Amino acid sequence: MLDAAGDQVGKVRDVVIQLRTQGRAPRVRGLVVELFARRKIFVPMPRVHAIDVNQVMIAGTVDTRVFSRREAETLVVDDLFDRTFTRDGSPVNIFDVAMRSVRTHDWEISQVAVTPAGGHNRFTSLRKKALSTIIVDWDEVPALVMMGRQSTERTVAEMQDMKPADVARELHDMSPRRRAEVAKALDDDQLADAIEELPEDEQVSLILILDPERAADILEEMDPDDAADLVQDLPDNLAERLLARMRPEDAEDVRNLLVYDDFTAGAMMTPEPVILGPDATVADALAKVRSEDITPALASMVFVCRPPLDTPSGRYLGVVHVQRLLREPPSTMVSLLLDTDLQPLATDTPVGAISRYFATYNLVVAPVVNSGRELVGAVTVDDLLDHLLPADWRGDQMDGQLAGVRRG
């Protein structure tokens, strides 16, 4: 494995996969890499930039904590190699596994190489095995399907394609012990999304059962405003410990939100809206809002500011609605399309005034600026609803008490 500079990081020793239901191929979650100090770490697939026959290229930083397998994960080399099953009436062993990229940073198992059972094991020469190897599609191998015998692994597999609110409802309905088992087995991003949908007391209880490193990872994956709300509900000493373990930039976003009074624009905003400089083009803007990491509400509007383009930005200039972007030539500069009549919210604007602002201008997202007219974030309509609805509305939703809404 090589880093972006071409320097060797270590050697790939295994591949971590996760079973999925509904006939979908097992998902590749990441690689187990042995560093030169013979310590094994986990490298998630989003960090993998390229793979060829001889090497794996990674981008960005990696977590050097010692790899620890979760319950719902399977290791290809340790768990699958040499596993025996029957094919066409004869026993065969799994010899090798192929994976393919199905979209950016998303890989899955595609094919499996098998050899006749008996006389072959992992120590048999590769040449001898290769001479008798048969390549089959992954779904022809019952052993892969049977990976999910453990109830937790099966449950996690069934949750893979659920919406966050549905995962949250499943967690809500479980016993505390079962909820802890499943939560510890879920991916960080999926657990973070689900926690955001749970009642506040259940958010706290889930964070408390996780070890501090994992809890900090979950907070990093959450939207900063939701993470700030959760941190505020934790004991002060624990909150500070988790913030100290988070990536500095993520912790800073959360700390910045904690200084604002409750039920104000500053407290409910996200510090990560779509920001462009005045010389950016329509093509640049559309490329930004096309990202799958941006919510539909945030993607409905881009904010134009002087550099720097991270919050707090340089001087706020105005907004451009995405519908306007779709009607203009790609080479047009966004600074020529500004809606300067839409006045931004101040950080201390109360929730009542924010709701009237959204209703007046028919918005799903609104800019928030500080006293120096620097953009510090954006309030989305879902942030607003979270603060307008009764405090226990998530609990009512978990219990199926929302009028006119059916569980499906």
Task: Write a structural description.
This protein is an alpha+beta fold. The chain folds into 4 domains: 10-75, no CATH class; 80-95 and 106-148, no CATH class; 162-259, MgtE N-terminal fold, CATH 1.25.60.10; 275-388, CBS-domain, CATH 3.10.580. It contains 18 helices and 16 strands. Strands 1, 2, 3, 6, 7, 8, 9 and 10 form an 8-stranded antiparallel β-sheet that branches. Strands 11-12-13 form a 3-stranded mixed β-sheet. A 3-stranded mixed β-sheet has the order 14-15-16. Strand 11 (275-276), helix 14 and strand 12 form a beta-alpha-beta unit. The relative contact order is 0.07. Keywords: CBS domain.
Biggest sheet features: 8 strands, antiparallel
Proportion of residues in helical segments: 25-40%
Query: What is the typical, i.e. mean, pLDDT?
Result: 87
- Low-confidence segments: 401-408
Strand content: 15-25%
User: By CATH's scheme, which homologous superfamily of the largest domain applies?
Assistant: CBS-domain
* N- and C-termini, Cα separation: 44 Å
SS summary, helix count: 18
Pfam families: CBS, MgtE_N, SH3_actinomycetes
InterPro entries: CBS_dom, CBS_dom_sf, Mg_transptr_MgtE_intracell_dom, MgtE_N_sf, MgtE_transporter, PRC_barrel-like_sf, SH3_actinomycetes
Domain CBS: 269-336, 338-398
Organism: Acidipropionibacterium jensenii
